[in-house]
Amino acid sequence: MVVINTDPWDEQAHNEESRDRDSGQKEQTLFSFQDLASDYYQVLRQRSRPRICRILWAIVVGGLFIMTIYMVYNLLRAYFRYESFNKTSIVWKDNVTLPALTICSSNHINYTLMKEVFEKDGDSEMLEVFNQAMDILEKYDGNEDLEELVMSKFDIFGKMASYEFQKGSIRLNFGMDVGTMVSGSPHYSFEGIGKNVTNPMNHMHPTELGLCIEFNDNGVFQQSCGGPKGGFSIDLNTNVRDYLPTTSSHGFTVFIRDPDENVMLNVGGFVISPGTETFVRLTSKSAKRLGPPHGTCKNVPNIYSKRNVKFESIRECWQRQVIQAMIEKCGCIPIYFAAQMFFWNKTHILDEFGEEIKQYRAQKEYEKRYEWANAEVNYTSLKKTQGTQSEKGLGDSIQSISNRIADRFMRAPFYKYVCGLVQETACAVLVDTMIKKRQLQFERCPEPCQYNEWDTAITSIPFPPTETYFKKFMKNEDLKTYEHAKKNVVRLHVYYDDIRVQQTTQIPAYQPHNFIAEFGGTVDLFIGFSFFTVLQLIEIGIAACVFRCRKNKDVKV
């Protein structure tokens, strides 16, 4: 028996399948398209499948493509936002390097020494003039023009500048030197063994606060056991009797810094008061930041660096702009800045500022209007003053300055552009007032891309604790009585409780390999796209070009 299939649907499907197979073979011969997208071919183009099925599958495939495009768009948007995260880890070590320390007196002029010298030289009137000048500048609130104020008090400020012109720089003659205030020997623990610090007189450093003492500038102080006994300790004699009447706080300003960081201004320190034992507990941190586009850090060359090995810190960036503002607004170079640049063989910077100041003074007819204010130091009178101070036992700091800078620093061409005390004090007050009123536009100081920092926990207790302790343990001729010690002595401990470093690293949230992996996973999940598909598309493109070129060649023939 012969069975004849009379179902037109089956017959039509059979014919369409034959045509599709023949067509597919041609396409496969040309482009291998079925290998590339056989799944889409089966559900969309194969005519043997019911029309309604192909329509439904077309909707599904279209939805998948739309979803894929949306997901890829979100991936691209997330990638090009260049987000990042901080990875923090705690690393325990055998020893941790202590930070560098800069310790300055909160009083920058030795008032006792100044009074003695004025009286000996018969210039008792100058002491009253000096006090009046400092009072005027101390009370300046920025509501009146400072230049007009100084000119209106010419009888006071003029005498001060004239004295400096004839006798020498007041700051150099009578500046406070923390090196002379060290009581006993500074001490730190290295590899569990107590060590005395090298003579502090060899580590003096001129700043806005006078001559400061620096420790661990080469980064050799390390702590291997936790607690105050394993860290750094120092006793200091405040010498309150030598403070200026206008000095508002008594004690020392302490700056904790990176060994290569330069401190010139009173920025970012904390004050320790006399009659206290202060404990500074440290937590060491090391940070690595990303620059654009993932982060905002920027490595700015430090033109004022001691050894030119570190990029500029935020504090150094601020100091640089303040000093430049003082030079631009007042037409002179702060003497502590000039001394630092001279010590570090950066006199080319001072020469450049000297040219700027020369133009500034020419434009304002400075020499005619302010001839009294050009306080060049008289080298001969400075040496004479040193002898007077040495007789009193207070000349070590001035002698130290003389040995280091008097012969060359005071005779250098740029020195005539250095500020006198009146200019420098008035200029510092002016710039500080302008900063508070936001009248100076400073550039934003960027965070360096790699730096060290220290968190501090500070506590203080009375010191010396008892009179018995003073008599038994504090053997120092300068500390004559227990009451004197309570008013003058400061004991400072800087230490780690835990011998560890907290390391923070900023890492891109989407790195290229992460993006490629997520992109591939997304398109493969929704539309089965992969690098293999990409290679096939490239193959199709090449094959199409070759086919067309051959076809055009055959037609021409």
Task: Report the principal-axis shape.
Answer: elongated
The total strand number stands at 14
Distance between the termini: 59 Å
Number of helices: 19
The proportion of residues forming helix, as a percent range, comes to 40-55%
Which class do the helix and strand fractions yield?
A: alpha+beta
Instruction: Outline the low-pLDDT stretches.
Output: 1-9, 24-36, 367-404
Q: Give the rounded overall mean pLDDT.
A: 78
> Biggest sheet, open or closed, and with what strands and sense?
7 strands, mixed
Brief summary of the model shown:
The protein is of the alpha+beta class and 557 residues long. The protein has helices at residues 8-31, 33-45, 51-80, 111-120, 124-139, 146-152, 154-167, 170-174, 314-330, 335-343, 347-363, 366-369, 379-391, 396-406, 421-436, 467-473, 482-488, 512-527, 531-556, and strands spanning 84-92, 96-97, 100-105, 187-190, 193-196, 204-207, 210-215, 222-223, 232-237, 252-257, 270-272, 276-288, 450-462, 489-508. Among the domains are: 8-81 and 510-556, no CATH class; 111-174 and 302-446, no CATH class.
